[in-house]
Amino acid sequence: MGWNRERAPKLVDDLNILLENLDVEWGFTNQISAADLAANGETIRALDFTKAVLVANGMKPEDKTNWMRQIKRKFVSRYGQSVSTASYGF
After folding, report:
1. Is pTM beyond 0.70 here?
2. Each residue's pLDDT tens digit, 38-62
3. Is residue 5 assigned to a domain?
């Protein structure tokens, strides 16, 4: 199965699509949810998202520079360097 390029009208739903893509494509289990990431409506930064995914999968981000680059690249491709509920739109 390939990368799902669909977009959702709400940021939390769209983040779930991205998290599912990481699971399908690279085997990252969804140990973190979009609701966890966007719970308080603050801006989600690419680096913070990337670290959260790795930590939720039992990895130390500082030891996984290749994964850091790849996950961050996917986030930036989809949202730019950061995204918030207020700024989200496609």
Report:
1. yes
2. 877 789 999 999 999 999 999 999 9
3. no
